[in-house]
Every structure is written in C-alpha cells, then in structure tokens.
C-alpha cells in the first residue's frame, strides 16, 4: 500500500490519501529508465553513510522519512543497530538541542498555553483524526539529561514514535508527536531569534494543571482510540500527572514505568549471572541508585514490587534499595525531602550527610550500582574498582542519556573490573575485546519496552495501563533472550530482533490487561497464545 501524505501546511487542507493497491505505475518519463527500488535502498544507505556527523545523518533520515516513509522504515528495520542511535539517543539529543536551527518543516502537533480554552479546536486540526492510535506527549521540560529544551523537545516525541513504527509496526499514520508549549526557563532559547516556541517563562503550577486537565479531556474526546505516552516531563510533573490521569485515561509515563520495566528486565538477567558467580540468591541483592529522579525512583519501585512478588516482605524489599541524589545518601534524618524520595529514604542511618559515592559504596556494599543522575563519568575508576572489590561480578548500569552524560563508558567498566562487569547503559557503547574475548554491552533503554507495551494497549483497547501490564512487559523482555544471546552473556536481546521481541512483549501485556479486566477487545480473550502472537504479527505494519 502506498501512503501519500498531502503536506498539510501548504494549503490548509489536511488529509491522508491511501492509494489503491497495487499502486499505479509511474507515468512514463517521470522516473529514470534504470530506477529500481531495491537498488535505491542501497543508494539511500550510501547517501546516509556518506555523511560524517550524526546530526547530518539525522537530518538526512528526517528528510527521507518525510519524502519516502516506506524507505525510511525499511532502512530502520534492516539496519536497526546502525540507525537507532541516529533517530534516537544519542543523536536525537543533539537534534533536540538544535531543533529550532535544523527545523525544515512541521511534523507533529504543537499545543500551547495560548490555546487554553480552545484546545479541542487545535486537536481537530490534526489531519488524521480517525487513524490516531498513539501519541507521545512531552512538555520539553527535561529532555533526556539535557534539561529544559522548551518546544525543541518535539524531537523526542518524533524519535520515540519512529521507534513505535519501526519496533512494533504501529502504522505511521496512527502516530501523533505532541509538544506542549508551556514556555521555557532556558534563557538562551528565549534569546534565540530562531527559537520556535513561545518567548515566555514556564507557566505556574496551577496554570499548567488547568491546561493539562483540559488537554487530557480533549485528547480523549477527539481521539477516542488513543493511547498516550508521557515523555520527559520534569520530575515533579512526571509523577504528578501520571498519578492524576492513570486511572482515568490510557496513559503511561515512559521515564517512570518504561524505564522501570527495562531496567528490571536487564537486572534480572544480570542478577542470575551475578548469583551464579557469588552463590548468593536474588533476595540478598543490595541496589544503589545514583540519581533519585523520575527514572531512579521509577526503577526502584519496579524492582521493589518484583522483589515482593518473589516472597520478600514489603519492608525487606524496600530495605534492599538505597538512593543517592545531589545531596548524597537519601535518609530521613537529613531533613525535608521531595515527595517521590520519601518511600525509599533510609531510616537506619543517623550520621552526618554522606556525599562521597565511594563512602556510600563502602557503607552500603551494593551488588548493583545504577546511574540515573545525568552526571558524566560519576562512576570513576575508584568507584568501579570498589564495586569490583565487593562483587565477583558487579552490576554497573550507567543509564543516563545521551551518551555524553553516561556515568561511565563500557570500556572503563570492562577495564576496571577485569572484564567481570555486568553492564547496561542508556545509550549504546561499542563492544570491547578483553583477553581475547569479545564482551557486549547491554542497552538498558526503555526503547525495548514502549513499542510492545503501546502495541498491546492499542490492540487490546485498554482503558488504563496497570502496574501488572508494565511488569508483564518487563518479564516478557527478560524472557525473550535466546540461548545464543545468553551464551554470549547478553542482558538484553539484540536490537535487530525488535519486532519479534515487541510481539512477545505485546502478547504478555495483553494477557496481563485481560487479567486486570482493563481490556476492551473481548475477541482476543478466546485466542490461544500462538493465535495471539500470530494476530499481533499480522497487525504489524510492514514497510
Ligand atoms: N536508560 C533509559 O531508558 C532512561 C534514562 N534516563 C536518563 O536518566 C537521567 C535522569 O532522568 P530523570 O530521573 O528523569 O531526571 P531527574 O532530573 O528527575 O533526576 C536526576 C537525579 O540525579 C540527581 N543528581 C543530580 N546531580 C547529582 C549529583 N552530582 N550526584 C548525585 N545525584 C545527582 C538529582 O538529584 P536531586 O534530586 O537532588 O536534584 C536527581 O535525583 C537522564 O539522563 C535521562 O536521560 C531517563 C529515562 C530512561
Ligand atoms: C530514554 C529516555 O526516555 C530518556 O533518557 O529520557
Ligand atoms: Mg525519556
């Protein structure tokens, strides 16, 4: 099927034309004599590879996506490991920072505080209302670890949705990237004549709240079959709006829940290998979080709820987790704490503030150190060596994005643990040779989770996203490692299998939705697992 998108900014007419199958042959003279679609795939790849800089490759791929979406997604699927870092982290970080400068043409929906009171009118301008199934919504206030990028955050919604299409076969015309323009507190953007957003500071909390209530209400009224992913909201708002809407609308927060799921999955696979080396069971793990924001606390909560399922009491599970923030170890006697840190705040430490990560490691003696802090190279040589001294196979997950903010590189982790590290990072690192052996880094990034989770939510037409669905996505991912991948010591499956993995995750999530009673596709209940997988595969859009 050929999809022809009429440029909707050109004449105010917004429509999608779906050409009948098979597409009409091109008119004579409009295509060169030797043009061949397969050869053209190679041509596009060569053009992409001829560019030196990541950002140039990003711009080329954006152009390709707009001009020839089928070719763009074909390249994504056939060269997933090469292209994902260009359309997503780390390159999407550069693209967002420079979004107003590299901007070519509008893509997605911009809803601003000036639209308050008439948000429905704005949403109704979307050209593909009936097809809309999934939206990634950001307010640009915490894009990756890069801070408040204002309306430039649109790049992250676009990037995540490209992965929905490539990774789970969501139809391209069913996706809506949205950036809410509520101002920005980043002065250099306010001063930049090319900046594309409103030139005002961020609105107050009550103003944002009223805006968000109207926005969510109108989204559901306009797009009744839409699933919403909240992305890269600043910490307080990430927690606040997830809690506010999660029982009312089909919505999830990728940074809290998607990250929780992906890290639990990698942790489980790492913990098996660590336990095999130490002889200690899963219940004895001690997990230190360096970074206690939306991602850190989201992951801590996910690990904790898994531990309780494994038979630990609530208190035992809570006590296996320590948080560190910009002020050091998080503990009750330290004084006033942000709401989201309170649950994991320690009540068993009374001393003076403990700020050095080395001291904290010495005190906690963690089996796993997880970085979600945005602090580049916070896992110094000494920190990595300290972890290796305590553990035969230390678990080190520097998860901050993009790659320049990673708490350590894979090379450093391998070198300072003498090849024993169990490693996953948020952005990709190259493999390493160590003593004649190739070691592979894991990529602990929510991109393994949200495509399958979102696809399941769409197919089962869920009314809400439950904790059990998120957990099912995590266990589905953990269980999708093949024997070959396990024998290579991988913690996550190879990304070129993403569609197969997404289908498996989607099946698990649909089953969890059915158990929770939040599904609204009764037909899927009668399908066997094999039938369900085959149904999911058949529903995936293929370029
Ligand atoms: N791999 C993945 O899939 C994902 C990765 N991430 C990455 O995680 C990172 C954090 O995201 P998020 O949690 O939303 O951001 P937040 O801003 O909510 O959290 C950052 C945390 O790091 C802490 N921190 C800052 N400076 C230091 C320091 N010097 N020492 C110790 N802790 C410090 C902050 O402390 P304080 O609370 O005191 O300010 C805060 O707790 C980002 O880089 C993001 O890209 C996020 C989601 C998914
Ligand atoms: C991966 C992701 O969601 C983040 O870094 O924010
Ligand atoms: Mg994010």
Automatic annotation (TrEMBL):
Cofactor note: Divalent metal cations. Prefers magnesium or manganese.
SUPFAM superfamilies noted in UniProt: Aminoacid dehydrogenase-like, N-terminal domain, NAD(P)-binding Rossmann-fold domains
A Pfam family that the UniProt record links to this protein: malic
Positions annotated to bind a divalent metal cation: 231-232, 255
Cofactor(s) it depends on: Mg(2+); Mn(2+)
Binding-site positions, (S)-malate: 142, 401, 445
Organism per entry: Cyclocybe aegerita
GO biological process terms, semicolon-separated: malate metabolic process
Gene Ontology terms: cellular component: mitochondrion
Lineage: Eukaryota, Fungi, Dikarya, Basidiomycota, Agaricomycotina
Active site: 88 (proton donor), 160 (proton acceptor)
InterPro entries: Aminoacid_DH-like_N_sf (IPR046346), Malic_enzyme_CS (IPR015884), Malic_N_dom (IPR012301), Malic_N_dom_sf (IPR037062), Malic_NAD-bd (IPR012302), Malic_OxRdtase (IPR001891), NAD(P)-bd_dom_sf (IPR036291)
Protein name: Malic enzyme
CDD domains in alphabetical order: NAD_bind_1_malic_enz
């Amino acid at each position: 099927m050929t999809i022809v998108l009429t440029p909707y900014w050109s004449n105010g007419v917004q429509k999608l034309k779906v050409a009948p199958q098979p597409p009409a042959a091109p008119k004579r003279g409009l295509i060169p004599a030797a043009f061949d679609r397969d050869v053209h795939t190679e041509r596009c790849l060569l053009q992409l590879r001829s560019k030196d800089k990541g950002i140039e490759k990003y711009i080329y791929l954006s152009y390709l996506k707009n001009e020839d979406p089928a070719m763009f997604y074909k390249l994504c699927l056939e060269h997933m490991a090469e292209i994902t870092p260009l359309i997503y982290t780390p390159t999407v970080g550069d693209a967002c920072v420079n979004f107003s400068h590299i901007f070519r043409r509008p893509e997605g929906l911009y809803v601003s505080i000036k639209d308050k009171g008439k948000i429905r009118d704005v949403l109704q301008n979307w050209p593909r209302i009936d097809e809309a199934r999934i939206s990634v919504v950001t307010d640009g206030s915490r894009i990756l670890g890069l801070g408040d990028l204002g309306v430039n955050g649109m790049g992250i919604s676009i990037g995540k949705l490209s992965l929905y299409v490539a990774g789970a076969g969501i139809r391209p015309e069913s996706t809506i990237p949205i950036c809410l323009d509520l101002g920005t507190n980043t002065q250099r953007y306010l001063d930049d004549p090319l900046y594309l957003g409103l030139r005002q500071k961020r609105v107050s909390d009550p103003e944002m709240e009223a805006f968000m209530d109207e926005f969510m209400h109108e989204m559901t009224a306009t797009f009744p079959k839409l699933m919403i992913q909240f992305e890269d909201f600043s910490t307080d708002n990430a927690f606040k709006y997830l809690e506010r809407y999660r029982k009312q609308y089909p919505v999830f927060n990728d940074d809290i829940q998607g990250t929780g799921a992906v890290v639990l999955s990698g942790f489980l696979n790492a913990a098996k290998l660590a336990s095999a080396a130490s002889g200690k069971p899963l219940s004895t793990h001690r997990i230190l979080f360096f970074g206690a924001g939306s991602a850190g606390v989201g992951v801590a909560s996910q690990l904790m709820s898994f531990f309780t399922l494994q038979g630990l009491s609530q208190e035992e599970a809570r006590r296996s987790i320590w948080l560190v923030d910009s002020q050091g170890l998080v503990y009750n006697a330290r004084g006033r704490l942000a709401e989201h840190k309170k649950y994991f705040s320690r009540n068993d430490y009374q001393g003076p503030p403990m700020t050095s990560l080395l001291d904290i490691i010495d005190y906690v003696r963690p089996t796993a150190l997880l970085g979600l802090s945005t602090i580049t190279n916070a896992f110094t040589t000494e920190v990595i060596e300290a972890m290796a001294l305590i553990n035969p196979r230390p678990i080190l997950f520097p998860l901050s994005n993009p790659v320049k903010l990673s708490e350590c590189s894979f090379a450093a982790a391998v070198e300072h643990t003498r090849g024993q590290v169990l490693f996953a990072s948020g952005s990709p690192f190259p493999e390493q040779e160590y003593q004649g052996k190739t070691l592979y880094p894991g990529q602990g990034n929510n991109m393994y989770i949200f495509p399958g989770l979102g696809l399941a939510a769409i197919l089962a037409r869920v009314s809400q996203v439950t904790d059990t669905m998120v957990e099912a996505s995590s266990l589905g991912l953990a269980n999708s490692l093949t024997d070959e991948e396990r024998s290579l010591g991988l913690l996550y499956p190879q990304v070129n299998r993403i569609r197969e993995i997404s289908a498996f995750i989607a099946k698990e999530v649909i089953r969890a939705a059915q158990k929770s009673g939040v599904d609204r596709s009764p037909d899927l209940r009668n399908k066997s697992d094999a039938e369900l997988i085959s149904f999911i595969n058949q529903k995936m859009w293929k370029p």
